[in-house]
Amino acid sequence: MQPLAGAGSERPATLADVAAATGLATSTVSRALSNPGRVNALTRERIELAARELNYIPNAQARALTSGRTRAIAVLVSDVTNPFYFGIIRGTQQQLKAAGYTQILVDTEESDELEDGMLHKLRRSFDGAILAASRLTDRRLTALAAEVPLVAINRQTRGVPSVFIDTPNGIEQAMGHLVSLGHTDIAYVSGPETSWPNEGRWRAMVKAAQRYDIEVRRLGPFAPRQYAGAAAADAILHAGVTACVAFNDLLAIGMLARFRERGVDVPGDVSIVGCDDIFGADFCNPPLTTLTAPIEQAGRTAVSMLLTHLDGARVGVRQTATLPTHLTVRDSTGPAPSSPPQKGRA
C-alpha cells in the first residue's frame, strides 16, 4: 500500500489522502474544497485542517474536468509592449484576482490569424475571454461570441458584449480645439487598417470637419508604434497641413522626435494631438495634447460583464458599456502658423 502523502512525503497530497485523513468520502472532500457552501461548517473546517496539514494543493486541471470551470480568463491584447494595454491588463488583473480567477495573457502581435488561432488552441484552459482591440472581422467575432463567452474592449459588433471607449467623442473635442486655434487644414495619421477604433476615429474627424467647414485628409496607414512616427512626420510635412490627430500616442511621440530632427517647431509650425494619454505622454518634449481615456476602468468593466455572464445571469445584463473620454490640452498644440511648414525642410 502506498503511504499517505504529507509534509515530509515526496508525493504531492491528493483528494484521496485528505479523505483518508478525515475518514470522509472523497466526494465530500471535493465538495468542501470546491464549493464550501454545500458542506456543513464543522465538516468543512475538519477537511480544511487536514488539507493544510498535508500541504494539499488543488489540481486546477482535475477541478476543471469535474466542475467544467477552470477559474481562468484569457485576456488578448494586440501588442503587449504598447503602454495603452498596461492599463487594460492592470484593470483585468485586479478584478479577476478579487473574484478568485487567474489571468492568461496573450499577445496577438496585431495579427487576426494569431488571435483566432490562440483562442482555439487555449480554449480548454479558460472559461471566457476578453479581447482588447480585436483585429478579427465582425463576422468572425460574432461567430466566436456564439462559441466562447467573451467581451470585447474598444470594439462594437452586434451580438458581442463590449466595453466601448468613446474616442470618437474625444476626436470631436480635439477638432473643436484645433479649429479654435485657427487650423483649417488638418490631417488624420491613420493606424492599422484592421483596427476598428481607427475607422471610428476617422469617421468622427470627417463628421467634425463637415460641421466646421474645414478640410481633413487621411495619411497612412502607419504601424501603431513609436518607430513609425518618423515616416508619419515626413508625410505631414509633405502634405503641408498645420495640425494633425494621430491614431495613438506612440505614433505621436515618434512624430515629435522626428520633427525635432528636422528642425520643425511643435506647436509653432505643426500642432499634434495624440490618443489614449499613455504613461509618458506628459513627459514628452513638448508634453502631448491627447485624448484621456479610463483605460483601467475598461479592463475592470469587461471582467465584471464577463463574470456576470459566466454566473448565468441573462436578464438585465448590459451588452455594451460606454466609457467617456476627454481632451487633455498640453503644449503640443498651439495657434495655426501664418504659413504651413515647408515641405522640403531637411
TrEMBL record:
Sections of the chain in a coiled coil: none
Record-linked InterPro entries: HTH_LacI, LacI/GalR-like_sensor, Lambda_DNA-bd_dom_sf, Peripla_BP_I
Annotated stretches, region: Disordered: 324-346
Superkingdom of source: Bacteria
Keywords: DNA-binding, Transcription, Transcription regulation
Pfam family membership, one: Peripla_BP_3
SMART domains, per database record: HTH_LACI
One of the record's GO molecular function terms: DNA-binding transcription factor activity
Positions of the HTH lacI-type domain: 13-67
Transmembrane segments: none
PANTHER family assigned: LACI-RELATED TRANSCRIPTIONAL REPRESSOR, TRANSCRIPTIONAL REGULATORY PROTEIN
Full protein name: LacI family transcriptional regulator
Organism ancestry: Bacteria, Bacillati, Actinomycetota, Actinomycetes, Micrococcales
